[in-house]
Structures are given as structure tokens and as C-alpha cells.
Design a protein that fits this description.
This protein has 9 helices and no strands. With 149 residues, it is mostly helical. The chain has a domain of 100 residues. α4 crosses α6, α6 packs across α7 and α8 runs antiparallel to α9.
Length: 149
């Protein structure tokens, strides 16, 4: 994609830009299916790790339900994606990519990069005063959802 932007910036002919562009117009469902197959991640495992409701997660992956950005982030953690692939998943799901100028997104990216689960990411978000990804844990509630009390 950067090559296409560069070509446009150097005033290349539009037909030339289009002919050389690596276009990928798969929807979220097709992209996620291909990504899990390439990585050898079983769909059931990804759904379990995401901590999403199983039926809802299947509907997202089938393309029959639209998900919020946080639900897509849960799916990214379930699929064990890196920062770039998580951003791609968000964008294909209709949400904005992870942004390096957003404190919350930086914490999420850190957790993804370090192979953390969604619960560990939520702990980091809470510890840094940010809104958590999964519901049920608000700022000021220091009781971790994934640790016994």
C-alpha cells in the first residue's frame, strides 16, 4: 500500500497505480478465516481465548453480525494477532486501526506484541487508568477478573 501512496505522490498515472497495486478486498470473515488457517489457529481456540460469547463470535466470523471495536479487539487477542494484523482486523471490521497517538491503543498494542491474553491486557489498561476491553471491570475496581479474590 505504501508503494501505491508513493506512486500517487510522484504523480504516476492512475491506471499504472491501479495495475501495480496489491489489492485485497476480502471482508472480515474471509480475511479472518485465511489468517487463522495460515497461522494454524483453530477457530474454536480463537473464540475461547477471545472470551466472547461463542454464538456472537461465530456470527462475527461468519459476517452476519457487526461487532464493536472492543469486541474486535477481543477477537484479535483470541486469534493471537500482532499489532499490524490486529489493526487490519479492526479496519476490516469497520473500526479504526490501532493508533500510536492514543494511550489506550498503545497499551493494547503492547499487550498484543508481548503475547498477552485479553485479561492481562485489561489488567494493564486498568492499572494505567484506561477503559478496559471486556465489560464488567471499571476503573477503580482493582479486583482482577482472571484471578481468585
Amino acid at each position: 500500500m505504501e508503494d501505491s501512496w508513493y506512486a500517487i505522490a510522484r504523480d504516476a498515472d492512475l491506471d499504472e497505480v491501479l495495475s501495480r497495486a496489491a489489492l485485497d478486498e476480502r471482508d472480515l470473515s474471509a480475511w479472518a478465516r485465511d489468517r487463522m488457517a495460515t497461522a494454524g489457529v483453530p477457530r474454536n481456540d480463537a473464540i475461547h481465548r477471545s472470551r466472547l460469547n461463542q454464538t456472537f463470535a461465530y456470527q462475527i466470523l461468519a459476517g452476519t453480525r457487526h461487532a464493536s471495536r472492543d469486541k474486535l479487539l477481543q477477537l484479535a487477542f483470541g486469534m493471537q494477532l500482532g499489532i499490524r494484523d490486529a489493526s487490519e482486523l479492526l479496519e476490516r471490521g469497520g473500526a479504526c486501526r490501532l493508533r500510536p497517538d492514543c494511550r489506550r491503543d498503545l497499551i493494547v498494542a503492547y499487550a498484543l506484541h508481548h503475547g498477552m491474553g485479553v485479561e492481562q491486557c485489561d489488567d494493564l489498561l486498568w492499572e494505567h487508568g484506561e477503559r478496559t476491553i471486556m465489560p464488567g471491570k471499571s476503573r477503580g475496581d482493582n479486583r482482577s477478573q482472571d484471578r481468585p479474590q
